[in-house]
Design a protein that fits this description.
heterodimer; A: 112 residues; mainly alpha; 65% helix; elongated; B: 778 residues; CPA3_antiporter_subunitC (chain A)
């Protein structure tokens, strides 16, 4: 199971990178979203999957899933949400100001 | 001693506050206290029965780097020069620099230099010495560029910086060698274990590296080119750094290490040869100059060469003459620099062709210059200290008993002639300086200002220095036993006290002095006839040209290389970074054998629902590449996000699933809002090569992630730390939800920063929208 999930995150990373290497702003943002999904899966897998019960203390339960990756991912989800929204507004503004959403056209006058 | 070294630096912090009142009281008045205090503190150690001592202060003991300040005769001489000349220079600067200048900058740099220089001289630890050494280069750079609106100042500052830092770095290399070989960082300990150094295979390399540091700092041929350009600095700085103290740091270094290297015959050849060549070349060049300060700059270079040569000889007489000349040079050259500054200040020019006959206007300055120049020329008069050390120099050149090596022996035979040859030019430029400025016909119409005598305060410092010239000249033995013998003894242990006498009898040295004066006078009187030769040699082939070309070419190629990859295309940058990640990760995986530990033992079961979700997500992710409709793109991305939350449920992470659901929903809403404003996706019309390279990069990264994940999952190098959280979640955090306890209790600060990041993002988003509205409203 773990290896399948890791392959999935590999696919997520590959598609994300492919999108990031594009010229259009929207694709690049989508790429960053996919990257964070992939990273979350990797972190979660590092704590091993499907062992024990959800990490909520209960007297009748003896083994729990690793809570540490979950705490890390929780932080990460929120942060990547912040980044996604910032990028969205930023690209919206950039596209408005420059009348283009093509990265290659935003290089400025001279390439110095 | 730590206080003495650091107090200028500490005081420098307060200078900007003091300088607010500079209109009422010149900032220099306050600064004056510092060098004066240091001078008074150290002068108490002068005496016949002075004994070296050390003060130790721990700094980084684990690396053997400590503030160990060692005061012996040599460092005492330098410390007194630094603080004594420092006092006079600050006093002089009070009258030289107008209150409209940026005084706080000037004095902060000057105090920084003072600390650094004291540190160089007193440190027994090579690495502390190196640190202070570079600090002197930096403060010198800042002071040369003090009038940074002038192009020449900036050029001179950069040149001095590049050359001295180059030397400093090679010196660091040499010092590291030394400390590795002897297993100590203390100079005294290195001297004690000099046998190990002398027997080392790296001895020639070490010597060259260390001498590079000394030669660049002390402006020895061919690195002398930075010193004349450093004359763009304000005159007090030239008098202080570029004549009396900083340029002698190289001399100090050679003197300090000469107990080690002296047993090595190439030390004599290298140091003496470079020293003598510098002496001859620079004194010849000095005669060509027309700028007063340039004459003095080349003269300084040549005098430094002379001291360097004497240190290379290393005999008792030569070493004594060297320390004597260090002191004498500081007195007469310091006063001459200050007089050059006065002339510049009062007439508005330093061009010797425009000056002449100033004796009647500036009798005081003329008198002072008379003593200074005649002392520098080594005119045999009993009240000029320059004569004594020059005479001792001549004497030492005639007593070189070198037999070890035929080359060295031949060279030793030529040295007296070269010494006389160089000194003749010294005589000529000294006379040229004095007579050209103060005698001859007046050229008042050429001067920008009407000349008049300088205020007494400005003359005070050169007067003190000239008094030093005369007193040392009349009673050389005042400083001899109390200071100079101790200093020479720390360079060469065999030095004993010898009284200095004016009249030695008709020895070769005296004849050499007479020859210098005789031939010098003839050359000076017929100087007009020689002008032509002076302007022909050295012509275009100069080291300045070489330096300029090197800088120019480096600059051009650096720009070209940078422009090659800094194209402004973010995509290219991304590709380079990703390519590097792939290459290095694979390399490390292969070299560290990362693939060999993969096991299939400890894996969770696979159920059909997991597979379904995963396949859907994978397909959706792949679809994002091929979809050309932005609404579809957003929705497909949403599928991946919601898929993740289902996976979180399956993998027993309820909090994550909840959060992911909420965040995904809000994100979708945001995307759809932005969707309205963003342009429609275009069909990609990129070439096959671009798509292929993109595909390779993305597949590479994907593979790396999977590989690293699998390899990491299979490893069992570390115990898990999660049990700690499970066990203590209730007892320490008082909560049943372990994930929540980790976030708000155990890693509370992380969460606080996370909230901060979100807050910053929110502010930025707000600003991005708000600013536009204001602009539209206008």
């Amino acid at each position: 199971m773990e290896y399948i999930v890791l392959i999935l995150s590999g696919i997520l990373f590959a598609t994300a990178i492919y999108n990031i290497l594009q010229k259009q702003l929207l694709r690049i943002i989508i790429g960053t979203v996919l990257i964070s999904h992939g990273a979350h899966l990797v972190i979660l897998t590092m704590g091993k999957l499907k062992r024990g019960q959800p990490p909520i203390l209960d007297e009748s339960v003896t083994s729990y899933t690793d809570p540490l990756p979950q705490a890390l991912i929780l932080t990460s989800i929120v942060i990547s949400f912040g980044i996604t929204s910032l990028l969205l507004v930023l690209s919206y503004r950039t596209a408005k100001e420059n009348n283009t959403d093509n990265m290659e056209e935003m290089r400025g006058e001279s390439n110095e | 001693m730590l206080t003495a070294v650091l107090i200028p630096l500490i005081f420098a912090f307060f200078v900007p506050f003091i300088s607010k009142y500079k209109q009422k009281v010149h900032t220099g008045v306050f600064v004056l206290i510092i060098p004066l205090g240091i001078f008074l503190y150290f002068i108490q150690f002068i005496g016949k029965d002075f004994a070296p001592f050390i003060h130790e202060y721990s700094w980084i003991p684990s690396l053997g780097i400590n503030f160990d300040f060692y005061l012996d005769g040599l460092s005492l001489l330098f410390v007194l020069l630094i603080s004594g000349i420092g006092t006079l220079v600050v006093l002089y600067s009070i009258f030289y620099l107008d209150t409209s200048e940026k005084l706080s900058h000037f004095y902060v740099y000057l105090l920084m230099f003072m600390s650094a220089m004291l540190g160089v001289i007193l440190s027994d630890n090579v690495f502390v010495l190196y640190t202070f050494w570079e600090l002197t280069s930096i403060s010198s750079f800042l002071l040369i560029g003090y009038w940074h609106h002038r192009e020449r100042s900036r050029y001179g500052a950069q040149k001095s910086m590049l050359i001295t830092i180059f030397g400093g770095l090679s010196m660091l290399g040499g010092l590291i060698f030394l400390s590795v070989i002897t297993n100590t960082t203390s100079i005294r300990a290195m001297i004690n274990s000099m046998d190990e150094i002398l027997n080392s295979n790296y001895l020639p390399l070490i010597m060259v590296l260390i001498l590079l540091g000394a030669f660049t700092k002390s402006a020895q041929f061919p690195f002398h080119i930075w010193l004349p350009d450093a004359m763009e600095a304000p005159t007090p700085v030239s008098a202080y750094l570029h004549s009396a103290t900083m340029v002698k740091a190289g001399i100090y270094l050679v003197a300090r290490f000469s107990p080690i290297f002296h047993a090595y015959e190439w030390f004599f050849i290298t140091v003496s040869l470079i020293g003598i060549v510098t002496l001859v070349w620079a004194s010849y060049m000095a005669v060509r100059q027309t700028d007063l300060k340039a004459i003095l700059a080349f003269s300084t270079v040549s005098q430094l060469g002379m001291i360097m040569a004497m240190l290379g000889f290393g005999t008792e007489a030569a070493v004594f003459a060297a320390v004597f000349h260090i002191l004498n040079h500081a007195t007469f050259k310091g006063s001459l620099f200050m007089i050059a500054g006065i002339i510049d200040h009062e007439t508005g020019t330093r061009d010797i062709r425009k000056l002449g006959g100033l004796l009647t206007f500036m009798p005081m300055s003329a008198t002072l210059a008379l003593f200074g120049t005649f002392s520098m020329a080594g005119v045999p008069l009993p009240f000029l200290n320059g004569f004594y050390s020059k005479e001792l120099f001549f004497e030492s050149t005639t007593h070189l008993n070198i037999t070890s090596n035929t080359f060295a022996a031949t060279f030793a035979d030529i040295i007296p002639y070269l010494a006389v040859f160089g000194s003749i030019f010294t005589f000529v430029y000294s006379m040229y300086f004095f007579f050209g400025v103060f005698m001859g016909q007046k050229k008042l119409d050429l001067l920008p200002k009407k000349p008049h005598e300088a205020p007494l305060g400005m003359l005070l410092s050169p007067i003190v220095l000239v008094l030093g010239v005369i007193i040392i000249g009349l009673f050389p033995n005042i400083v001899n036993g109390t200071l100079l013998t101790h200093a020479a003894k720390s360079i060469n242990g065999n030095v004993d006290y010898h009284a200095i006498q004016f009249w030695h009898g008709l020895k070769p040295a005296f004849l050499m002095s007479l020859a210098v004066v005789g031939i010098g006078t003839i050359l000076f009187l017929t100087i007009k006839k020689w002008r032509k030769i002076y302007s022909v040699i050295p012509g275009k082939l100069s080291f300045n040209e070489l330096y300029d070309k090197t800088i120019d070419i480096t600059d051009r190629y650096a720009k070209r290389i940078t422009n090659f990859y800094m194209t402004g295309s973010l995509k290219l940058y991304m590709s380079i970074i990703l390519g590097a990640i792939i290459a290095f990760s694979f390399l490390i995986m292969v070299t560290t054998d990362g693939f060999s530990h993969i096991t299939f033992n400890d894996l969770a079961d696979v159920e059909w629902i997991d597979i379904t979700v995963i396949i859907v997500m994978a397909l959706a992710a792949i679809c994002t590449i091929f979809v050309n409709n932005k609404l579809s793109l957003i929705i497909i991305t949403g599928i991946v996000g919601f898929g993740i939350s289902i996976l979180f449920v399956i993998f027993r992470a309820p909090d994550l699933a909840l959060t992911q659901l909420v965040v995904e929903t809000v994100s979708m809403a945001l995307f759809l809002l932005a969707y309205y404003h963003l342009p429609e996706l275009r069909k990609r019309n990129e070439t096959i090569t671009t798509s292929a390279s993109n595909a390779i990069l993305s597949l590479g990264i994907g593979t790396i992630i999977t590989m690293v994940g699998i390899a990491a999952h299979s490893s069992d190098w570390f115990e898990t730390i999660s049990d700690y959280f499970v066990e203590t979640a209730y007892s320490l955090g008082g909560g049943h939800n372990i994930v929540n306890v980790i976030l708000v209790d155990m890693r509370g600060l992380d969460t606080l920063f996370e909230i901060t990041v979100l807050g910053i993002a929110a502010l930025a988003i707000y600003a991005l929208i708000k600013v536009r509205k204001n602009k539209e409203a206008e």
